[in-house]
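Data availability excerpt. The first of two example chains:
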Amino acid sequence: MSEETSKDPAAGPAAGVIEAGAYWPRPWSGEDGGPRRVCRPEGQPGLDIQPGEQLKLEVFRDSFAADMLIRREPGELYALRHDMPKGDPLAGDCEGWVEKLDPETLQPLTVTARFPAGRYWPGGIAAHANGDIYMIFGCWARRFSPELELKAERRLPVNRPYNSFVILDTGELVTKDCDAPRGEASSTFSVLDPETLESVVPELEIPEGSIARLASDGKSVTCVGTESVLRLSLDRELGELVIDEQWRPHYAVAGQTFGWDPVLADEHVFWMDNGQNEVDWTMRDTGTAPTPVRLWWCRLDDQDALRSVEISGLPYGTESNPPAWDPERGVVVAYDAGNAVLRAWKLVGDELEPLWRRDDFAHAGHLIVHPDTRELIVQDFRDLAFTRGKGFRRLFRRPIQSLGRRALVRRYPVMGADSLVVLDLDTGEEKGRVKVPSPSQSFLFPAPGFDRDIYYLSMTSMARITVG
């Protein structure tokens, strides 16, 4: 890391705005609100929907394809965009780019060139404490100015897609490849200098695969592997990335598949398993394991304090994202996207006590939590039940995906559409709902808006939702 960056006064976390890592000191400058992935816009008030107020679809934009929305300064909104290989989207190479958007119309103000990325898998962007925008997508890392001028780029060492990154308190980017979608091959970690994007220590291959995105408290990095959860730290004296051998909870259970993104609370880490599925336009009825999906948690100071609970209790449960955590009242939200069940618990000591459950509620994407107004932002995909049948999917999956490349089909979906919903965090009661014309269920990264609004994002569609 350069001396110039290390002396930057913005290089450390800002109290009350970002909870860890050298991110730009404004709300939602990285995915899930920050590297702990608690899904909370730190330092920003909630929507505070009052009786008589409604959610309104203010702006819709066809945006096939997009992965993520992040913010920098007030009014600065950025999107990670990419194309999709035809046929099997995971079998071909793709291109990725970044857009700076008008925060009200969602139209691009500035667009980078389209850069080669390699094989597709959702990547990530973030605003660094040094002011620049970083993108890791496919097997490439790139650095842009806030005006999206390319400042550095590097092809990463493993010829597989890298699923985003976290930023340490000291400014380095930590990333890893993933053997998507099955995670059979082991993953390799890289720690990148934020100035040059070159590795600051030798790469480290961990002893198992990992599909999950990383989480971090700014000092160490937490990785959910296919069998265990690992904690790694950068040892500058040794000049290497080190695995914590004293804390490595093993969660793999016969009949279950791998876990996804971890969430770091003050004393626990949370994640969900059964992450393997055959998702297409929706995650409903796509689980491959005949077992219920489970929510796991473990104390950060005791690898043996490992617990789990079934989310729905239904067979063939699945998911592909993190749960959410409310640090003010200890509420944990998790979901079974395969069976359309959304649940919440309250953490008391080391145990979870059930709070509420919503059945036939098809949420699959990343969550947003507003602890101050006790609001939870989710999605609920409504479709025709027969389209989820195995026979129908076997015959029509590819033709339907081909039709989805047409803008008219995306704007006026027939088989199903998504909704953005605001729930009471403590009771699960609905406070607001608005339909979004997305033929694809949202699996991706929404963002809170700048003034009582929300940015919805699916693979095909982008929308600005307001309260009125």
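And the second chain:
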Amino acid sequence: MRILFDTNIFIHREDDKVISDNLQHLLQILSKMKAEILIHPISIQELKKDSNKERKAIVQSKVGSYNLLESPPEPSNDSDFLSKVKQNNDHDRIDNNILYAIYKNAVDFLLTEDKGIHKKAIDIGVNERVLLINDVLDIFKKEITVSKSMSPPAVKEDFVYNLNLDDPIFDTLKKDYSEFDSWFENISRKGRKCIVHHRSDNSIGALLIYKFEDEPIAGTPPLPKKKRLKLATLIVSNVGQKIGELFIKLSIDLAIKNRISELYLTHFVELDDRLEYLISEYGFRKVSTNKRGEDIFIKRMIVENQSRTNSSPVDIVREFYPSFYDGENVQKFIVPIQPDYHSRLFTDYPKRQTRIDEHQGEFIIEGNTIKKAYLSHSRILKIQSGDIVLFYRSDDFKQVTSIGVVESIHTRITDPDEIMRIVGKRTVYSRREIEEMAEKPTTIMLFYHIFHLPNPISYGNLKTIGALSGPPQSISGIEDESYREIIKRSGINERFTIH
């Protein structure tokens, strides 16, 4: 496995011990895995221009032990690539050269803390392979014995008054909002709740403070009165994609439980704004601007304009998640999954055996996301993007428990590195498990997890309605009529289905 390091990961604020410690853990993991760490030659050229001699000397001493990427691909003649990325200055040229190495598959992954590169990675469709330090830790942490410092960070619901107002995560808010301290004191006294992620040094890595509203939103243009969930404060620092996605998922779950179909937040958008990229990926769209100059982003979960049903099934679920298209234009499949992998893939499944930290009010990050990856040795080739998948937990429950929408499908893969490249940030499998899977041709299904069925459908009922004729051994298609009966019996709120 080849991983390209951007030299910026070696440069930290002097007081940011957490990032430095995480990098040390990461290097230990990659060393054990015998991963090849590479530096792009253009990064060395850029480093030589650094006027800060002390910083330059430190970084040069760190990168000197790694090999250079030989004969890196050159983007200057690739008009298609250049049309997707901006190149207004020398800094853009350097970023584009680094990004082009991942675009042309010269390496498996790119590790960078550069916000601009992460934004461009989304634009060219390689964001699953462009990672933060914490993303890589999350993917590969199974490869070493987990020490206390590598334990999963806490994400839990708490009261605002238990937060440390002096935490550095609030510095920007205090600067942008002169009344922030008094607002914080006021909502604390009201007993407002929040969802908070603490890093290993107990500082706040991510935070959501929410509020239920039923009122118009002042702005240009104004928005009509409606029940909404306001994400009053949503901050996700450099703690990895999965935590940001988990916070979006928890917000959506909270809205659904309270019969709310719209979420919104206000935000001062900056250049290469990581929060804007995160929320845009899950359907938040700018619709207005308030008097402070903040953009107002709305996330709608119900398709009210039926003309949108002309969009592709994947576009619909991306824009209106958890709403999804399940009409006759998509196929339906039952996907058998063993209990162990089911528990890891769906850590929020209600009947799963819970861990002690969950009894303490914490959420498991791994597997508790919207986008997931499923691996199997199924030889089925007819699954397409937008198709519906119903996960059947075999052996113990013998029930269809969960429903998803296929984003993409990859078949007959036998190279473990290629599997890792495809699943990227979504994997719940260890490297060793992937290597064992790759001994036979492997099918990779990337999908959106929509819902767990309120009323799981048993094997007996699946036979009764004609969805199964015997215990499922591999992925199998079902008729639309059988699917309709499953949905009818499952108790899924059909407000979220489009057909």
